[in-house]
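HUMAN:
Could you generate one sequence with tokenized structure?
ASSISTANT:
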Amino acid sequence: MRLAASGEVFPPHIAEFTAAHASRVRELGFTGCFTRFDLDDPFTTTESEVRRVRAILDDHGLEMVQAIGHRPPLIHPDDRVRQQGIRVFRRALWIAGGLRAHSCHTGPGSLAQAGVTRADWVRSGAWNPHPGNWDAACVDRLIQSLRACASAAEDSGTRIGLEGHVLVTLDSAETMRDVIDAVGSPAVGCDLDPVNWLRLESVYRSGEAIDRMVEILGPRRIFNAHSKDVIVQPRLVTHIEECPTGQGILDHDRLILRMEDIGTERYFVLEHAAEADLITGRAFLLARAAALGVRVW
């Protein structure tokens, strides 16, 4: 088991990343990172900027576990919008490859997204619900888009790390498995985030849900895992919300053990975290790992 940091500890622009950021990540006890750099235009990011960041990471013994894919609308019915999303994501894969990232992160996008620019996509929400997000046509378009991007991942020496959520097309481990298999590239897999797939019938039995997710996806399709937690708010009708690692009811013991079975080299990426959450979340995972006899590298 290995731990990676993400969140506010990193700047939103690649040009702002310095040795001080890398040093702080190591001081906090992490060996990996997930940088967003999501305010950058990937087409203006230069090779020299990528090499500079990679050199800083090397100097501090840090792995780039994930790089951002800029939330492309890969399921969009307007082919002009979808093709622009593919172009942006292929460029993001080139950046991820230069950073030697394990994967470049993306979801499927949402039919709620409007416009053809990255700013449009962010404003309208790549993870926002839309009644058409679960249509079979969205699955077909997602497969076509990923096939168009898989070669860029292979050529760049990185992988496409898909993330799912109940609100978008990749709404379950079953759908994730079927999409990955249909694309048919070893460069396409899943970064497992169990919280995103929990529903009312599974949130209080998250250990069983995690078992099922891992059994459906199998080790070949799972690259790394995202670490966060979940709570059920005492409000009507149903409010299932994420929260920082160690502050909710997720069965972390089951997740740690299942990921350890998959491979000790797999990372837990503490996601959506303020620096204080990175500290408390890491301490929580270290304590649970120690109790389970799992080594954190």
Observations:
- The CA atoms of residues 79 and 294 lie 47 Å apart.
